[in-house]
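Q&A log
Question type: sequence-to-structure
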Amino acid sequence: MKRKVVSFLCMIFVLFFIGSVSLYQEAWAIDNLKQVKNGKTTYVIKMGTLAPNGVGWAALIKTIIAPGIKKATNGEVSLDWYYGGTMGDDQDIIAKMRNGQLHGGGFSGQGTIMACPEMSLIELPFMFDNYQEVEYVYSKLRPRISQWYAKRGYHLFLLAEQDFDQIYSVKHEIRKPDDFRDVKIVTWNGILEERALKAMGASPVPVRVPEIASSYHTGVIDASVSPAIWIVGTQMYTVAKYVNTARIRYSPAIGIISLMAWNQIPKEHQLAIDNFMATIEKGFRQRVRDDNEECLKAMYKYGLKETRMTPAETDVFKKRLLPVWDEFAEKGYYTKAELAEIKGILAEYRARVKK
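Response status: OK
Response body:
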């Protein structure tokens, strides 16, 4: 009897401790978010990202989103960004969002899926053929995507993109599975990327994002799947000699705020932020595409050689990669019904375009 009482009391203590920690973290996050100065209340949202300051969509955040949110909320809500991995990698940033050290983050690749596994659907290899298909799917699923993130404890205020990624290599061009045999291709984007690379015939080398550029220059790796602007921004174009521009993978990017922090912002400001973001989101993605296109053109002038696969060569990779779709549904990243839905949306769009 005494043992049961002791066990019961221990359980109550553990629950009380966990609850106290949770309440402390929430209170700390609130105090850290809300600021009062000279009688005026403002809300400073601390955001972390791996994106380098002034490069790619991080530059657009600085010139479009940050001032836009400030204006929409009459200067009462602002974003305070920590760029370039100063708050750690994606995993670190998400952990700091959960304990209140950060209120939000900007993610592409790994962080997008870490925060919301269902987003694997958008990153599946050969899911999209072009930007028009991407935008059509977003037009149908944007509210659902917000729900996915809300279910995980985040408010999705920006659905952006990294763009279609390319395969860059130092040694030789890559156009068939055998070309991966003697290539040290980096993987940093999570389990989906690693699985896809292995299916393509590669033996991927795991490297943390802050170490990729130096690893490229020192020969630890000699190939990567990346957007053009990343290759330019990290100066990896000085060693990369070949680029395969096949649209194998589309990579979304996101801006999210923890619901713990978001719910402390007055409702009128929440609405103002969401309304403003809705007006610029699609154009934001287009700006990212334009920037990547300019970077590719610049690298071609520098000497980068483009590899264009034939339809037959593309089909070889498709046969290896399409089974990954069902495999990740079985692993629970998304449901088979969700996979069927996005395939149905794309089939609907493609049938309409053919008419």
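Response note: The radius of gyration is 22 Å.
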